[in-house]
Specification:
The complex is a heterodimer. By secondary structure, chain A is an alpha+beta fold. Chain A has 2 helices and 4 strands; from the N terminus they run βαββαβ. Classes of the chains: A alpha+beta, B alpha/beta.
Chain lengths: ~80, ~425
């Protein structure tokens, strides 16, 4: 069974260098203050390489992938909220 | 199981019949000694009772205790913290409970320590709640003179900051660090005080647990709804004749609660439910709703910390929201960009709107920014602040347009409704 993963950012470590949004624009955009907004959907194989590049080049080491069903993980609330 | 609690009001369980602080003698005379109950039996009773956390998160208490117990490798290695931080400015219910029934909370705390296997037990409160600290220390001394428990209940005091009552912040403080939230997971049950499995539980929840240990889950469920059984402590303020703390079954309507707070003064326009991470709801939509989670969800609200503020139709809802939003922006821990950069930007933009110095497009920007910051902090502070704002923009939509144009409305300058404490700069 393939473990589905998603990209996460540690918002305390992140200092808005903006590298990740450059390296992985398919899933990361910047907000108006330069902090990354990360698409929470599971990463498909075709984008995994870009995800790993963003993780490796983050100057704050603030990015990681984790299983989609990681217990206790927080995700962005519904857009309906 | 005793049924002595059935005597008297069905909906007054936590609060004493008369507003007199209960010492240990009075507590024992009313409730008898704390029953001995095994870990499994206690946690099963919590599961059966359907009790949920009353600090605002509404999380099932039995699930939380079991998670800590399961992570505790050796008996005694867990830590239990009673959360009496009560950093919500419009809430007084935890302090009220600790003032009048401290021993019921301490009973619940001891049940929790026994159930999860904790030797280290802490009550955490806030520096500005100095009478509560004194009351607690006195109650703990009274108990130490009576029993030979090898557990020492420590009282710890943290900063009076809005996010310092969040559970990871309080774990950090008790571990000797600044009271700032941490990224989860790991949650406290996985990695808490000094890396030990830690249970953090609101004091009202602990008092309910103490009653469930004595009277059982069916008794607890005999009032309230299936999803929200039991009673809740509420802080009712605003346009009511006798504002204060009261206890009500969770199937009581907002209107009935207001009646118990002496009735409404003037014409109600809106109700703020839950606290400053809660929501405004138009009075006519909420008045006949009960305060259980299902009913409140149907109007997109939650009970939060049990705060109900009744806004009369002479309230400047925009001015109130402006003040609270500025306060919330000042309460960021300064850790996460979307919160410590985003919230002040949102608060400033809203202030421009409220004072008539913004273009109409500012409203769209506020919606987009609010949506953007949600879910992007280590804790839920940005979520709470922006959902509060969104509800205000909806409920006070007409006033908002008026402010956008004229910088005020006919109720601007009225006596303010929502308390906003002074910020202690730099103290964490």
């Amino acid at each position: 069974m393939v473990v589905r993963v998603r990209l996460r950012v540690d918002p305390i470590k992140c200092k808005a260098h903006g590298m990740c949004a450059e390296l992985f624009p398919e899933r990361i955009r910047m907000d108006d203050w330069g902090y990354p907004v990360i698409d929470q959907r599971a990463l498909s194989d075709d984008v995994l390489e870009h995800a790993h590049r963003a993780i490796a080049d983050c100057p704050r080491a603030a990015l990681w992938v984790e299983p989609v069903d990681e217990p206790g993980a927080r995700v962005r609330p519904d857009d309906t909220d | 199981m005793s049924s002595s609690m059935d005597v008297g009001s069905r909906s007054q369980r936590l609060l004493p019949p008369r507003p007199v602080p209960e010492d240990l003698d009075a507590h024992l005379a009313g409730f008898g000694p704390r029953p001995q109950i095994g870990s499994m039996a206690m946690i099963d009773a919590l599961d059966d009772s359907g009790l949920r956390g009353r600090g605002g998160a509404d999380f099932p208490t039995g699930v939380k205790w079991r998670a800590v117990m399961d992570h505790t490798k050796r008996d005694g290695d867990a830590v239990v913290i009673a959360n009496a931080a009560e950093c919500e400015p419009a809430s007084f219910k935890d302090r009220f409970l600790l003032t009048y029934r401290p021993h019921l909370v301490l009973d619940g705390l001891e049940h929790a320590a026994e159930a999860v296997g904790a030797r280290r037990v802490v009550i955490y409160t806030t520096r500005s709640h100095s009478d509560v600290v004194a009351a607690l220390r006195a109650a703990i001394r009274e108990r130490r003179r009576r029993d030979d428990s090898d557990r020492f209940i420590d009282v710890q005091v943290g900063p009076n900051r809005y996010v310092a009552g969040e559970e990871t912040a309080l774990v950090a403080r008790v571990s000797g660090h600044l009271a700032k939230p941490k990224v989860v997971p790991p949650r406290p049950f996985q990695n808490g005080v000094d890396h030990l499995p830690t249970l953090v539980q609101n004091v009202e929840t602990l008092a309910h647990a103490a009653l469930i240990a004595r009277f059982g889950a069916p008794w607890f469920r005999s009032v309230g709804t299936k999803r929200s059984p039991g009673t809740a402590l509420l802080t009712v303020s605003g346009a009511v004749r006798t504002p204060g703390v009261l206890e009500a079954a969770c199937d009581t309507t907002v209107g009935a609660i207001v009646d118990r707070a002496g009735g409404v003064e003037g014409e109600p326009a809106a109700v703020l439910l839950g606290g400053y991470f809660g929501r405004w709801v138009a009075a006519d939509r909420i008045w006949n709703q009960t305060i259980d989670a299902d009913a409140l969800r149907s109007v997109r609200a939650h009970l939060g910390t049990g705060v109900l503020v009744i806004a009369p139709d002479t309230t400047c809802g925009i001015g109130e929201t402006d003040r609270v939003l500025t306060f919330l922006a000042s309460q960021t821990a300064g850790q996460c960009g979307p919160c410590h950069v985003g919230l002040p930007a949102i608060a400033e933009m809203f202030h421009q709107v409220a004072t008539g110095r913004a273009r109409p497009a500012a409203l769209d920007l506020l919606v987009r920014w609010s949506h953007d910051v949600r879910g992007r902090g280590a804790c839920r502070h940005p979520d709470g602040a922006t959902l509060f704002l969104a509800s205000a923009m909806e409920v006070f939509a007409a006033d908002l347009r008026h402010h956008l144009r004229h910088g005020s409305c006919r109720f601007s300058g009225q006596r303010s409704l929502l308390p906003v404490p002074a910020t202690e700069a730099g103290w964490w």
